[in-house]
Amino acid sequence: MEGWRTRYFPILAEFVRNGGQFDRPETKDLWRGLSNLPTDDILEHHEESVKFLLSYAEPEDRMTYVHRSLLFITELLISLRLPEGAATREEADTDRLLLNAIHTVPINKEKPNKFETVLQHMDSGVALFDGAGNLRFLNVQMSRLLQAPRRALIGCTLNQLFFHANLQLPIRKIFLRMYKDMVLNRRFHGEFQDVNGRFLLVSISQIEELDGDYLISVKDVSEYKQIEQSAFQNDKLAMLGKIAAAIAHEIRNPLTSIRGFIQLLNPLLKDVGKQEYGRIILSEIDRANDIIYEFLNSSKPSAPMKQKVLVGLLLKESILLSESEALMKGCELNCEIFDPYLTVAVDVKQIKQVLLNIMKNAMDAIVDVKEERKGRIDISARHEGKYALISIRDNGKGMERTTLNRLFDPFFTTKEEGTGLGLSVSYRIICNHGGTIHVDSQLNEGTEFLIYLPYAE
User: Measuring CA to CA, how many Å separate 275 from each of 146, 221, 257, 264?
Assistant: First the structure.
């Protein structure tokens, strides 16, 4: 018998949202279940439900909600009237109770207590489902995470949320995954990533004090993930440093000896017409030495020798060094300096190394799609808070999210002949200058590197 209370609120909520229409198929079942109940009990529960519903209504919607809820209870009580012969006194009592209900429903929003205010403004999203799967409550943060208004969701069943027009498809998919994990795997905690790259920590609890209701909390832990990844990145770079220090000198010494002997053999190779072999050997030895040099720099770039320099001048010199390669690869370089007096205190050689490395990667990304559109690299600098922000944007092939997550890992590369050390070196150099690098990329659209360096007066 008590099950009618669970079914009452979602039917009322949908009636109010749908402009006073009874759309739910279980409405008739509810009517039959209420036929033997005292009118006072029905009105009391109706008043509680309306108060709960109005707590989510916008000020301009409150009067409409009150009118529709009164229409709902009127039609309900009319359908429950006694047969004609015994109806006179009951009708009078019902009319009296209806008038009381009209006057007791609060049209003006009551001031919430401090505990409700705290719950509404928590940084975690909170929602409450009853045992039948009806959404009874959600706070402001949960509404933001779902990107849907609270009034459109309250009273919906889980099945309705799976197909709700106000919820984006990726969010509905997360709902479905949560439900499957809970029902099939009895898994009540999980981490999900949405299409915007946010990491959401979801927890489902069923506490005795909630009388069988389910409490769902969702927290955006993207910032904590970034901190965790940065710590993991530093651990990998530290490990790389130990490896580099152990093997660098052991390899460099024999390479130096081999190079010397090849130079001594060059006259003999020339006599037999094989001088090309000597040239190739020397170039390969030089390439091996370059890789070792990158090894050492990736583990611990030398301490920056800082000097104050105009960012505009730094960018122009870097562009000048890249212009010839950009011309050969069909890339157009564009530079825009929003603040001509923007100054940073940096090691010019190291920062140029970072800029040249990123611009070279941008050119390589453009080469793969240059037949589809003209290659373009836009470089800009502006003042943002305590930092000078340098942006390098290309319209190349872009990157998938899996690639983006490993971009600064040592030895990770998508190039056939790459070492995977260039960006890890660049990351360490910027960190040593007290700055940060952020990357935004869309597949088949392009990539943007944002370099933040402390501003110098």
Answer: 69, 61, 19, 12
Contact residues for 265 (Cβ-Cβ < 8 A; gap 6+): 278
Cβ neighbors of 48 (< 8 A, separation 6 or more) are none
Grade residue 21 by pLDDT with cuts at 50, 70 and 90. Answer: low
Structure tokens at 146: 């779902």
Instruction: Please give the CATH superfamily to which domain 114-220 belongs.
Output: PAS domain (3.30.450.20)
Token representation of residue 109: 């929003």
- The mean per-residue pLDDT over the stretch 211-224 comes to 80
Q: Which residues does residue 127 pair with via DSSP β-bridges, in sequence order? A: 138, 216
pTM of the model as a whole: 0.45
10 Å Cβ neighbour count for 51? 14
Res 45: pLDDT: 77
Q: Where are the domains of the chain?
A: 3-104, 114-220, 225-299, 307-454
Tell me: pLDDT of 113 over 50: yes
Measuring CA to CA, which residue among 347, 335, 338, 354 is closest to residue 309? Answer: 347
Q: Are 70 and 105 in contact (CB under 8 A)?
A: yes
